[in-house]
Structures are given as structure tokens and as C-alpha cells.
Amino acid sequence: MFADKDISKFNNIETPFYYYDTDLLQKTLSNCAEAAANYQFHIHYALKANFNTVLLNQIKAVGFGADCVSAGEVRRAVEVGFDHQKIVFAGVGKSDKEINEALDLDIFCFNVESIQELEVLNELAAKKGKTAQVAIRINPNVDAHTHHNITTGLDENKFGINSWDLPACADTLKASANLKFIGIHFHIGSQITNLDVYKNLCVRVNEFATWFEDKGFTLKVLNVGGGLGIDYYNPDHQIPDFAAYFKIFNDFLTVKPGQEVHFELGRALVGQSAALITRVLYIKNGKKKNFVVLDAGMTELMRPALYQAYHKIENLTRGAGTAVKYDIVGPICESTDCFGKEVEQPESFRGDVFAIRSAGAYGEVMASKYNLRDAIRSVYSSEI
Fold this sequence. Notes:
With about 375 residues, the protein is of the alpha/beta class. It folds into two domains: about 5-15 and about 270-384, Beta Barrel (Lyase, Ornithine Decarboxylase, Chain A, domain 1); about 20-270, Alpha-Beta Barrel (TIM Barrel), CATH 3.20.20.10. Helix content is about 30%, strand content about 20%. The protein has helices at about 20-35, 55-60, 70-80, 95-105, 115-130, 165-175, 195-215, 240-250, 265-270, 305, and strands at about 15-20, 40-45, 65-70, 85-90, 110, 130-135, 180-185, 220-225, 260-265, 275-285, 290-295, 315, 325-330, 340-345, 355, 375-380. Strands 1, 10, 11, 12, 13, 14, 15 and 16 form an eight-stranded mixed sheet that branches. An eight-stranded parallel β-barrel has the order 2-3-4-5-6-7-8-9, surrounded by four helices. A hairpin with a 4-residue loop joins strand 10 (about 275-285) and strand 11 (about 290-295). The protein is elongated, with a radius of gyration of 22 Å. Specifically catalyzes the decarboxylation of meso-diaminopimelate (meso-DAP) to L-lysine. Homodimer.
């Protein structure tokens, strides 16, 4: 990300800011699109990972659709120019207002997560004289083997319809004149790096597809979600192995003639495209701990505080020098405002520029104004 850039240019830019490598993003998108095209797979980009409009324009240009979890995200996708018929709307708690807005925009599909939601959606669609296309999100009870806070496919999770509720779900679908049932939907978690997990998912998708077909339903869409992870430890030009990822679904998913396989990828597409650039405010050396205090904190990048997530940290100013172990912290009045403990860095000084890598997903979008902090800014590789 930084090999071909004059890092001294960062010295003239007020920190903190997100630095986006749009060239790397384009390579990642092209790689994914080519790998998916081998099997005629459909990709919807998950806006929850990053809804920066510059990135969205690049993603739209590749031909991907949009996966949204709020009316705001649906609205953003439409404003940027995503095809309405490539927009899917998921989320366990869609409000009536959000559903009505999505109905008015004639989106491709609602991924429905409860029987009660089916009933509400049918009622609201009837009032508008519309028919809403729906996919049923099923909780497959597949362990994604990832962080507990980002699993979504276990019985203990709030997402989707559990298998024991499917008979009632089928009855509701048959009784809903303003719903068109087109498929089934799954999403088992995020930051999945063990691809064998997806083999287990394919087995469950095949089972549920057979269950619905045996009940007389025709499935056009098999939406297997996303969750493919990235390598936070080795962020330099690391593009996920999309070919291996898609091959698993080609090999293990039973796809019948006329059926489409849909994916909802987020982090894997944008995660490595950005770094949080920040400057050292103070060095605090003590008997037990040495601290680097940065001008970026958990308000700019929440993941380490929220998930104890690892991000590679680099002193861009020093590059080399006597190694010192520091706790890398921010300025927020919380002890959890820490990017890493006992992180080995060259001896660092006030004014040094640091990069916190792999921040393109769930970075800018989770930023807050806690402590009345200024809104985080974005800088793009094409600008410097």
C-alpha cells in the first residue's frame, strides 16, 4: 500500500484520516468478479462494511449489486446508482418505515428473518398494491469458527428463522398473496478464514432447499451470504483467494437448472484497501509500560476496543531503529481505547506518522463523535 508512495506527503495532511488505495481496491474487485464469472455467481456488496461513496462507485462499476441492512443503506445504494433489481434488503429488525421505503424503490428482494416480518411485509405490500419478492433467511446452526460477537448462524443468534419454525413459515408464505417467494438466504458470520466451514454450509443449504422443494416451492435463488475473511497479519497486497472460495460452492452446492447462486461479500472486497493514518501526540515511558499516544482513537477505529481485533501497526516515519515495546493508545477517555499492547516498534517520537492497517472494513462506518470528536476524513491514493 505504501511501497510506491512518498510518505512525506502525509506530513502535510492533518491527521487522523483514512487513506484509501483505490488501485488495490480495483485489483481486488476485478479478481473477485473474474472468479465469480467462472460459475455465473451473483455478487452483492455488503454496504455495512463500508458505504464511502468513492468506493461504492468503484464497486458499482464492476457490476456488483448491493446488500443492505437498513433503509439508509438502500437509499445510499440507489443514490450511487446501483441497479434497483440488484439490491437486497436484510436485517432482523426492519421498521415499517424502512420496508415501505424499500417497496417504493422496487428492490430485488427482501431477506426476511421472521414469520412476523413476513406478515408485516405482506400487509404493507398489499396497501401499496405491490408484490414483494422475498427470500427466507434460515439459521442453519453452522459454527463459523470466528469471533463470538460476529457469528450469526447458530441457534443462539438472533438472526434468521430457525429450522423448527419452517413449517409455519411455509404456511405463511402460501397464505401471503402479496409476497413472491424466490429463494433461501444464509449468512453464518464474518471474518471466516477456514474455508471448510463453507462446505458445512453447502450441506445445510442443500438440505433446506430440498425441504422447500418437497413442500411444492420453486427456488430461484440460493443466497449463501458472505463472511470471507482477510489476513490482518499480512496486509500488503493480500487479495483473498476468491477462486478457492467460489470453487467450494461450485463443488458442494447442489444447483438445479434455472437457479442462481448469490453472495454478499463485504470485508473481503474492501478490508485491505484502507489504513488509518494517525500521528503521535505524546510518548509516555514508565517503569512497567511505554505508551504511544496517537491522535486517532476508538472513535475512529472501533474494532480493537469492541472485538479485541488485531490490526498491524506501522511507524511510517521511522521504518527501522531500536525496537521498543509500546502500548499503542488513543486520546479517548476510556481504558479500552487501545489499538495494541506490547507492540514492538522502532523507538518513536512526537510527530511520527503511524498507519493502522486493514481498516477498509468496519472502520470509517463505525466511527463515532464520542467525546465530541471531529468527523474522520478520507484521503485517496489518486489525490497524493
